Please model this.
Amino acid sequence: MTVARADAVLTGQHFFLGDHAFAEGALAAGCRFFGGYPITPSTEVAERLARRLPEVGGIFVQMEDELASMAAIVGASVAGARAMTATSGPGFSLMMENLGLAAMMEVPCVVVNVQRGGPSTGLPTLVGQADVMQARWGSHGDYEIVAYSPASPQECFDLTVKAFNTADQFRIPVLLMADEVVAHMTERVTIPPPEAIPHVERKRPGQGPGDNGFLPFKADDDLIPPMVHAGEGYRVHFTGLTHDERGYPVLTGPAHDRLVRRLVDKIRLKAWQIVEYEEYRVEDARVVVIAYGSTARSARRAVTLAREQGIPAGLLRPITLWPFPGERVRKLAERVSAFVVPELNLGQLSREVERFTSLPVLGVNHAGGAMMPPEPILDVIREARG
Amino acid sequence: MSTSTFIAERHPSDPLFRADRLPHIWCPGCGIGPAMHAYAQAMVESEIPLARHVCVSGIGCTGRVPGYLNMDSYHTTHGRAIPFATAIAIVKPELEVTVYSGDGDLFAIGGNHFIHAARRNVDLNVICINNFNYGMTGGQVGPTTPMGARATTAPFGNYEQPFNLPYLAAATGAVFVARWTSLHLRQLKQAFLRAMKKRGFTFVEVLAPCPVGFGRPNDIGDAMEEMTLYRERCVVDASARLDSLDIDLRDKERPITLGNFVDIERPVFDPLAMMRPAGERENHAALAGKTQEG
Model:
């Protein structure tokens, strides 16, 4: 077969839209399947991959809806492909059931959610950050999730590469929780040469398909079972039902607790490895702002302005919303006097901050529609300083 | 010679099934088991190695089929077997992917995916066990329940027009469309074989007794009586008009028409088709190792 070829990794300096940086990050990570459905403000991810994936021999399919998109990326991944979809709030809601399937079947995949104002159709073209808790708890049942929050087009690229690696390492769905401002922002993006792109291989079985006693869902000491792909001769069974190490349904309480506890623990016990955050002037800070995505950019400016006014402020920017850097908050709480949490929702991540401190946690909230300016954050920093 | 003391240690088909998962969950008289066995036999006769067959299902009684088959099998979410299987089929075109699910799963909650996969002509086989009701949840009305039939959620009789599944499949683009029953196992196996050998989106409807969920509340009786009904009322007519294939089990004057109704060729879904030179586009699946003729 003859398929036109192009470079998968566009090494060099670029001036990229955040949405395009997601697409290029996916290609650089080796993603070769995208199943998606158009939705503002994530559509540019699909548009770029519709052109770029076929150029590198990958598969782009515009599915009939987001239910199908999410099911398709799970199917593509069990067949061995690195697979991704991109969406926004309404589509994210439709993906929740099969996100749970990916968690239960332990199928790695990556979902980009470019947040807009909600609930419902809300503000299709305007920014929001109100899917933070849906990212954590959106599908039914107990599971752990990893969700990255990029604050720049460069991070859209870098964190997409990381998301694929984390997904494959832990056999989980991984979320990229962007917001409309970051996704529609154009900035410099540096793409390293292919050999400098970090790559984590999916863990694969050491046993051949003919070996007796192979248990496809028997975890190693890291609580992660090696992954078998369709068509390799292992004759595996994957099910969304509660299952045992053979992959067979076992519908009992003890079997359920054993399975769900492992699915949760494989992330919880490694949360310290996964958690990422960035700090700005927290060393001697008395008031720490905790902000993510586009709001972190305004928060950084607010911290600078506060410093100019003699207020010892700092910024903690969670790069992983989930797992949340709660231990860092607990540590900071030993020496600061208050936290300020600006976000484009009426109080979501602030609840998580409150779990790790008894200090005042002051929200700076707007339901969305425009980027948060630095001034209201500065006002609350001043108020927190008292 | 007395055979009364002879007990076979193994059945010749044992390697095709996960014998360690038996007994299965299906009720006595259910039509899913025979249809599953016909599918397993067709896989063997297809001469496609078992390691290249993949079975995907949604939720429901029929959704349990892949779990009993000793092959790569995926039991997904309710209604979403087709998009899941679509991705497997296009990521690994060398695999023979079959969706095996029920009428409620494929045509109520999953109906949108069916029509789009048929339209695209994805290289998939879809086998639908049609037992005219939701069996797993206890006999509710569904998209194939005949007008007037009683169900736990249609206690006064169903007043919705059901789908004529072969007509729907043909209209939306399936290249092979057949209907048989779990009584017509030889013809059913042949239809499965034809579907496996054929490139593109194939559809086989299997009419199957559900004595507990559908037979009893509709005065059809037990499985034997429903099988007798199939034997007496079914006619094989491959050239029947597709729009005449509606089923009403309760109308004794109305035949149930069976057959292989559609067998056509059309370009198979290939996401990279437009990247290939025009002359190579339609040969893509053949290049992937599929047999073109059955």
Observations:
- Chain B has ten helices and eight strands.
